[in-house]
Amino acid sequence: MKTQATPEAIQAQPFFHIPFWQQPAADIFSQRALRLNELAAEDSSDWQPYLLLLAEICTAQQSLLERYTGADWVLPATNEGDLPLTPALLSENRGLADQLFTDLYALLHEQLSPTAVQVWQEILQLSSEERIRLCQLAINQQLGLAQQDYQIWLNAVVQILYTLVARSLAADTVKPCPEPGFCPCCGTDAVGAVIIGHGELEGLRYLCCGLCNSRWHSVRARCSFCDNSRDLGIQRIEQATEGVLAATEAECCPSCNAYRKRYRLAKQQYADPIADDLASLILDMLLSDEGWQRGGANPFLLMGKIPKH
Description:
This protein is an alpha+beta fold. The protein has two domains: 26-171, no CATH class; 172-294, FdhE-like fold, CATH 3.90.1670. It has ten helices and eight strands. The protein has helices at 7-11, 28-42, 48-68, 88-92, 94-108, 114-125, 128-139, 151-166, 273-278, 281-289; strands at residues 21-22, 192-195, 205-208, 215-217, 233-235, 248-253, 258-264, 293-294. Strands 1, 2, 3, 4, 5, 6, 7 and 8 form an eight-stranded mixed sheet that branches. A hairpin with a 4-residue loop joins β6 (248-253) and β7. One of its GO terms (cellular component) is cytosol. Residues 19-177 form the FdhE N-terminal domain. Residues 182-220 form the FdhE central domain. Residues 222-301 form the FdhE C-terminal domain. This is Formate dehydrogenase accessory protein FdhE.
């Protein structure tokens, strides 16, 4: 199933058109895997094995995205004003989700530790309905402590399904949300933003979804949380002149006391908001010490622990 922009919609675009919404790239997961491997090579801490694990997951995700492109799936019916991808997407495509769980485990299990294999076996032994329920909790960051070890695996499968469907949507079917920081395609809080580094869109800010992997334009002069346009600040680690921190900044709003990280593609053209977020947590620690509240939902960031892998 694929929706296309009509010729009339294309002709109606102005000469200089700023695309509001950008669908996920066809190779989004392989790009992320490359970036995670680059970041892991620069990291000598205990975090490095986790970055390498995520690179393996992304490689498997890319394989399944390509395998199931063209597969049959159902886009749930929506009412006027609803987002294109609703929470019902999972339950309406339970069979495909079940197959994605089975296939992802098959691609990864030889690289996993016995502990991770045990976690996967627990997931696969659940009923289809229970897996879907847990996926919904993972999307909303509401998993209980007893289920935290499931999080990266649940999110990995959900990402594949949502990205697969988002790639089928025409840009003119995705409209802005009332809350600018939430994905207009699936409603997820943006994981971060990129500042375009070249071409006609140079300097524009695009917020990035950590679930369906789409991007949407958001005016840089306004807070992506509360829409405030006064006294916005940019925080960075000034001493960082190379590596991940050189291109990483935080947009801080004194009105809501929140910040969201952004990445300047002119300084690091391969920056990925999910991967680079995980490799730049020192900036989050410094901002937390100053009293700022982190915003943005990274599906692979587990606060306080490194998952079993």
